[in-house]
Amino acid sequence: MPVLCPGTAMTFGGGPIPPPHARSPEDEPAFLESVKAVLMAHPAPTAEQLTESTNALRRYIRRYAPALKALAVTLRADDPRRALAGRVADGGFYRAAQQDGPGSGLMSARDYCRLLLRAAYDIRDHYEKLHLGKEAPLDVDPINPPPLRATALALILRPAEGDGTHEPHVLMVGPDCAGETGRNFRLPGGAMREGEAPSHAMVREVREETGLDVAPARMLVHDWVPATGTAPAGISLVYAVAPLPGEPEVKLPLPAPERNAELLSYKWVVVDELDDYCMPHQARRVRAALAALRNGDVAELHHGVSAYAAAA
């Protein structure tokens, strides 16, 4: 599985750029100021200069956003700085993941580079505010970041019967995890094991979580998920499954110490009620999967939003 962040030291205009907790006035600020000078140059910077600056900023953000998030999660859960720093890191990571560089036509290369520079400054400034001049414990090593987490999920449907709608019901499971009460339902499935094929992981996880034996039909969704304070960025794949005979009988797993998140409940949810049971990105993912099933295509998403709409 590829890693999202580079594992080698970044160089720009000479020397390597150290991690935020080891930086000094002679290196990291000089790097950011050198990019700023390129953007403010008259006449306008060349395409080659913009490309170099853009790529360097992307590497910088992808490498240091996890360090900011790791520092933020050392704060109390009710500390507003924790959520703010997380949003800054996620926003920078999202910008760095976009492909709006030179030649994309979505925005000018110069404007995109300005957005990245602003994100890099924000990440640096928030880290500085939280760090307070002390060495901070880091759960994420910015030099050797963790690999992408990968999950395989199933879109399991049953026909609508007697509820006055023509929409199918979607099987959703409610894990014992953080989230708004009544709104933490998700599609059944889970993490892939090392060396395991995604479709095989989906079948195994669905059986473990629901007791249902399903067969993959085709992939519907490829959804990139940003990092959180406790987990690296990842990819979630959603599969259509072959129709199940009769009325599916769901059997939730018994509590087991080796399972990190025990399932507490399940529900067959109609599309119009997804927002009542799911967090927004989960509801968007399910709707995208249903649309892909109807259209015969595969939806590429960024946290539940069309990857191409997000890039625009």
TrEMBL record:
Residue ranges annotated for the Nudix hydrolase domain, each copy included: 147-291
InterPro entries: DUF6415, Nudix_hydrolase, NUDIX_hydrolase-like_dom_sf, NUDIX_hydrolase_CS, NUDIX_hydrolase_dom
Superkingdom of origin organism: Bacteria
Keywords: Hydrolase, Magnesium
The keyword Magnesium is annotated on this UniProt entry: yes
Entry-linked Gene3D superfamilies: Nucleoside Triphosphate Pyrophosphohydrolase
Cofactor(s), names only, from the UniProt record: Mg(2+)
Record SUPFAM superfamilies: Nudix (SSF55811)
Family to which the UniProt record says this protein belongs: Belongs to the Nudix hydrolase family.
Protein name: DUF6415 family natural product biosynthesis protein
UniProt source species: Streptomyces gamaensis
Phylogenetic classification of the source organism: Bacteria, Bacillati, Actinomycetota, Actinomycetes, Kitasatosporales
